[in-house]
Amino acid sequence: MAKLTILSLALCGLLAIVFSGPTKVNNVYEAPPCDVDACQLPSCRCSSQTPPGNLIGPNVPQMVFLTFDDAITVSNHPFYEEVLFNRINQNGAKIAATFFITHEYSNYSLVHDLWARGHDIALHSITHVSDTGYWANLNESMWRAEIVAQKQQLSTFASVPLAYIKGVRAPFLQVGGNPMYSALVGGGFEWDCSRPTQNQRIPGLWPYTNDYASTQDCQIPTCPDEAFPGFWTFPMIDLIGDDQFPCAMVDECTPVPMTQAATYNLLMRNFENQYNGNRAPFGVFTHAAWLVGPADRPEFAQRKAGYIQFLDEILAMPNVYIVGISQAMEWMKTPTGTADIDTFVPWLDDPNRVRACPFPRNCRYENSTWERFMSSCIPCPPEYPWVHNPQGTNLHYDD
Ligand SMILES: [Zn+2]
What we know:
By secondary structure, this protein is α/β, with parallel strands linked by helices.
């Protein structure tokens, strides 16, 4: 009898484990608390301030993300060339930044150039409508129209293979809760980097998958609370400005640094919190407009000099690597200590990024109220590409 009870209990335990996935409540799958035994790499990781792979302290490579939001243009591309193209990591590979690209005003032959040079091409919507309420209330179908359709759009005009486009940042960091994440998962995306954290800065919150409920604070509601197995969130760990206020994007930190020294100090002080701590990835999330400006405004050149000084100093520090977020995701799946990191293939230069935009076209569109230019790697479409007409062919598009 006792044996039978134990067997029953064991069976119940087994059934409980089998059925411990997401529970459906009111037709919604709410993510359960994370089960550290069931949630294992490479496919699953609980939200945590502990580095993955049982790595500790100096054995953890310090990943640094340089990200830039919005359109790639002839105005900001020279800045990327100057700052990013000739710097290398200690493994001998080129450093990689992550670009969150909006369709409007983007020059797709320059997008192709950034991709061919090894940078991470991610998406930031077709329209970038400047009303956060629009993004907060967007339904799943419209997230597909703004982001999922943008993947095919960018792939077409910038000649970037679809398989390279994996990540997203919501405009204004205004995440759209479950409808947004559901659209991204359905659209084949693998990660999002839109959610700031103030509460898990030191030690920093490591990236995690959304199989289970996360412990991350929701700074800009609405955050997803359903389970999205295998889909990664890369938290934006807030920086602290000189006035001690938190800032998710460095160009929101106050007071805005006006000198090289102030810029360098802001970046290095925040970097050291992670580098001397649990080595959660450190992000310098910004727009080129923070660093590129008119010649009669010397603070732009000062900030750029401080930014470059910061890059050169961290690249000379042990175990620091400036990588794209998609490269970091591969590391998260297969955590690799500093002893073996220089042969970690996803962080080496990618030989498959072959240039395929030999004859860029300059497309021009106008109506009575506006004019748009678009450089394209393929012949100009008849219409200016836009939401619900992402290829500019003016055919019905099933979003
Ligand atoms: Zn933006």
